[in-house]
Amino acid sequence: MSNEFYAPGEQRAAKVTDLFARIARRYDFLNDLQSFGLHRNWKRRVIELASVTPGCRALDLCCGTGDITFALAKRGAEATGLDFSPQMLEVAAERKAQEPRPKTPSPTFLQGDAQQLPFPEKSFDIVTVGYGLRNLTSWERGVDEMFRVAKPGARLIVLDFGKPANALWRAIYFTHLRISVPLIGLLFCGNAKAYAYILESLKHYPAQLAVAEKMRTLKLTNVRVINLLGGAMAINYGEKPR
Ligand SMILES: C[S@@+](CC[C@H](N)C(=O)[O-])C[C@H]1O[C@@H](n2cnc3c(N)ncnc32)[C@H](O)[C@@H]1O
Fold first, then answer.
1. CA dist., res. 234 & res. 162, Å (int)
2. Which residues pair with 226 in a beta bridge?
3. CA 18 – CA 72 distance, rounded (Å)
4. E-strand spans in the chain?
5. pLDDT of amino acid 74
6. Which of 24, 73, 75, 215 meets the CB 3.0–4.6 Å disulfide criterion with 87?
7. How confident is the model at residue 179 (pLDDT cuts 50, 70, 90)?
């Protein structure tokens, strides 16, 4: 079944922009609700893998309201969050303004396209993307850009919905995405379709195994897939060769 927020090709970006403009204000709350708060643990895993050292340069793509960007900054990174949704960035800016006098430098937020980054090559020690790659018109282009702006030795980390290898678990999990998640979206955000989009986008995204393959093609080292909840979520990790 098609979804009004999913379109292949050139229309993809406009649809995704519209989607996040509509849900930006409820995004954080709904994230907690639909994942039972677990997304916080998974993002913590991303931050651990990032191995932040004070003053290192970190880029968080598709940063949304900034969960990963703020966490990188709290660990001492000079962190930049990039997203193309003004509404999501507005929430990130409000969160930044409300931070109680941070001990480490606050992150910078920037509007831009993850597929066409406004940075020279070899700029960052860490490049992350959380629940973003799946939303791009070309996820491969997104990984190419991550690779381009990464310094030699940099960590590239992707967190997103995954596709469980076990058929029974996959069926249960897809049913959850088809029924419960849109229902939560309807009840708490007044928009079922925006949340039904998660399953639609996942169907068109080859997920953790293809991302790992792409990382290997780019000759990243230490390529790893960390399956969470039996592969329902996944972290892809790789390092740019020195
Ligand atoms: C599901 S949210 C993830 C937000 C955040 N990373 C998190 O984990 O909570 C996906 C974000 O990707 C952004 N996005 C989608 N396509 C993008 C693109 N081409 N360039 C930059 N941001 C994009 C959306 O605006 C949205 O804020």
1. 5
2. 235
3. 28
4. 57-61, 78-83, 108-111, 124-130, 150-161, 221-228, 233-239
5. 95
6. 24
7. very high
